[in-house]
């Protein structure tokens, strides 16, 4: 009885741990981190700032006219 209990718990821990380890990366958190680190290394190598002053290109933004009709 004790051996069966020990083996059952051991198998459950091993198979459960293996199952949890190989679950897919939901939300792509690991990928997002790797991509951010890759972009940081690329920008540092090129001598660019990590974050641009303007996130969007100001020449492409169309603002409404100041006339309110």
Write the layout of secondary structure elements.
Layout: H1 2-21, H2 29-46
Pfam families: ESSS (PF10183)
Family: Belongs to the complex I NDUFB11 subunit family.
Transmembrane segments: 6-24
Descriptive terms for the model:
69 residues; transport; 2 helices; NADH_UbQ_OxRdtase_ESSS_su; respiratory chain; elongated; mainly alpha
Secondary-structure element string: HH
Structural class, judged by helices and strands?
Answer: mainly alpha
Relative strand content = under 5%
As a percent range, the share of helical residues equals 55-70%
Number of strands: 0
| N→C terminal distance | 86 Å
How many whole angstroms does the radius of gyration measure?
26 Å
Biggest sheet architecture: none
Uncertain parts: none
Overall pLDDT level: 90
Count up the helices. Answer: 2
Overall body shape = elongated
What would your notes on this structure say?
It is a single chain. Helices cover 55% and strands 0% of the residues. With 69 residues, it is mostly helical. The mean pLDDT is 90. It has helices spanning 2-21, 29-46. The protein contains 2 helices and no strands. The chain has a domain at 1-48.
In short:
Keywords: Electron transport, Membrane, Mitochondrion, Mitochondrion inner membrane, Respiratory chain, Transit peptide, Transmembrane, Transmembrane helix, Transport. The chain has helices at about 1-20, 30-45.
């Amino acid at each position: 009885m004790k051996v069966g209990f020990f083996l059952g718990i051991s198998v459950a821990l091993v198979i459960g741990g293996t199952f949890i380890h190989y679950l897919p990366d939901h939300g792509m958190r690991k990928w997002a981190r790797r991509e951010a680190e890759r972009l940081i290394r690329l920008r540092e190598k090129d001598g660019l700032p990590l974050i641009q002053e303007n996130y969007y290109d100001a020449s492409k933004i169309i603002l409404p006219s100041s006339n309110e009709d």
